[in-house]
Amino acid sequence: MTKKQAIFIIVVNAAISLIISVSVLLVWGRTAPGTAEPTVTVTHVQGLPRSVETPEMLVYAVQEGDSLSGIALEFNVSFEDLMRANGLVDPNLLFVGQELIIPIGGLPPVPPTPTDMPIPFEPPTPLSTRPPSGSQPRVMIEEVIARGNYGEEFIIISNSGPPVRLEGWTLSDQQGHVYVFPNLSLGTGGSVRVHTGRGINSVTDLYWGLEVAVWGEAGGVASLRDNQGKLVDAYPLP
């Protein structure tokens, strides 16, 4: 072997060693712990378009005919989490091609917002022991029948309240005719007819005993007063 051949062999061996060393360093740099780059896997969900999946989320492209509730059902996530993950306000505002984040596994619950001041306790309003004013019962002149026809005319007095004793009450017109009620009690919802003419009193019919009709004059008023003279009701005669 000549001197030139020996030098050539040494140079070739050095070059081969250098290439091997560089290759080892490159392989080590790619496989060393902590230096690997995260990978993104492209998957295809059956019946759905191509999606991009990472270890923490799934991105889905909206297709024609999709609904938010249907997408939530397909990926087994809650409707509310799907709304929150994408900041949606109206679930009906979707468009084809829109990318939605699918929160696989759900989102953490939203912590309650503390109020600046505690809401003061308001005790319940006590129930009233009195009935409403609109339901207060009363004794009243309900109607005048056969006005001006002697022997036929009568007035109907009704009671829409608790039982009341009518003894000493009066019924009068503007010409000075006054009828004084006998000892009679009028029950709740009951009524009594006061006839102008003659007859025999009963629990439903009372007779004034006059010889003339008193309720025929137009513009008059029939007045009902209690046994203290207080006006209870006034019935205008048109």
Short description, anyone?
With 238 residues, the chain is α+β, with helices and mostly antiparallel strands.
What is the H-and-E element order? Answer: HEEEHHEEEEEEEEEEE
Taking all residues together, what is the mean pLDDT? 77
Q: Could you tell me how far the N terminus lies from the C terminus, measured between alpha carbons in angstroms? A: 154 Å
Count helical runs: 3
Largest sheet, if any? 4 strands, antiparallel
- Sheet/helix structural class: alpha+beta
- Please give the share of residues in helix: 10-25%
- CATH class category of the domain at 136-236: Mainly Beta
CATH architecture of the domain at 136-236: Sandwich
Query: How many β strands by DSSP?
Result: 14
The low-confidence runs, each spanning 5 or more residues with pLDDT under 50, are 34-55, 126-137
Q: Beta-strand percentage?
A: 15-25%
What does this 3D model show about the protein?
- The chain has helices spanning 3-31, 68-74, 79-86; strands at 41-44, 50-53, 58-61, 99-102, 139-145, 154-159, 164-165, 170-172, 178-180, 185-186, 191-195, 205-207, 221-225, 231-236.
- The longest helix is centred in the N-terminal third of the chain and has 29 residues, at 3-31.
- The chain is an alpha+beta fold and 238 residues long.
- The termini are far apart.
- Helices cover 18% and strands 24% of the residues.
- The chain has 3 helices and 14 strands.
- The relative contact order is 0.09.
- Strands 1-2-3-4 form a 4-stranded antiparallel beta sheet. The chain has a 4-stranded mixed beta sheet with strand order 5-6-11-12, with no helix packed on it.
- Among the domains are: 41-102, LysM domain (Membrane-bound Lytic Murein Transglycosylase D, Chain A); 136-236, Lamin Tail domain (Immunoglobulin-like, Sandwich), CATH 2.60.40.1260.
